Amino acid sequence: MSAARRMVAVTMAGRTHEVPVESPRVPTDWRRRGLAVALAVTGALTVACVVWSTVSIAHLLGGGEAAYAGASVFDAAWLVVVLLEVYHRYDRARRAAAQRVGWALLVVSMAALIAYGIRLGDWGVAVGGPAVSLVAKTLWVAVLSATQRDLSPVAAGWVAAERDRAYAELAVAGVDLEVTRTRAAVAQQRAAMEAVYGPLAVAGSGEAPLVIERQEQPEHARVPDHGARLLERAAEDQARASASMDAAYNAGLPAREVLARAARLRQERPEAPEPEASAQVSGPEPAGTFRTGSGESPEERVPEQRPANLRSAVYTLYALGVEDADEITARLSAMLGAVSRASVDRYLREARAAASAKGP
Known about the structure:
Layout: E1 5-12, E2 15-22, H1 30-60, H2 65-87, H3 92-120, H4 123-145, H5 153-197, H6 225-250, H7 255-268, H8 310-319, H9 325-336, H10 341-358
Antiparallel strand pairs: 1-2
Helix pairs in contact: 1-2, 1-3, 1-4, 2-3, 2-4, 3-4, 8-10, 9-10
């Protein structure tokens, strides 16, 4: 190999010129070249060994394409284990386990070749046939010993710790990837179902169901027993009606249809008799109720029961024709207390999408 040439700036008499200079040659790595030749020769002999073993064992199995396919398994098995030995060359325990498996598979292949020679009645084939596989395996053991390095206990412990850390990162990454794929599948399934059934309730959304808590009233605000029973019954009816309407919304029924049917039922029912004077309860109207003027049509009236959550309240107001977010926020704030404008906007968009998908 000719020496490499490179240009070097040389200055003489105040002037500089680029002058070619020969660079020293890199010394030949005869060790690496020898190892490459050994690998090439071993690989060629292994190919010859596989061909011989496959043909011999195929004849033992009766010939045919299926027999050749089955015969190729014998030598291919211990060759795969040779690759595992290379992979575990820095792990003594795993490399030793791969070596034991490789020798066991080689014994099986040699036994098949011995049986083939005995069947032919030729002891030369019975002895020389398995010797071919034994020589190929021995060559691989010798060549791989030049690439294997046994680490000291301290270095092996450090490598094992690094390997454990890498395996832990791979395990966590695999779990994260599985969770991400599952969440994406759930989102796609939810989007497909909402396109058919309308908006669905989200589990764990933080919207608690309506809970009616009994609070002690001061002595001057207490009403007679008959009036107390009426108030308790009214509260239970309101909670039951609110839960039923919310269930209808979650089932995907159009809000306008639910409220219109409820209004028709109220219109068809006879008015309840006026309670006795002793049973009438005077006092301010509960803060949870809101209504419009009595002259409006039943479809435009706001239900008098307290909604189970903000979502059902927004759906109800939208179904009654209230489509302005500011007006909805003001009404619900007066009824439920402080409400989130962002939540109102989100539920209003859902109500509009459901109305456009389901129709009136």
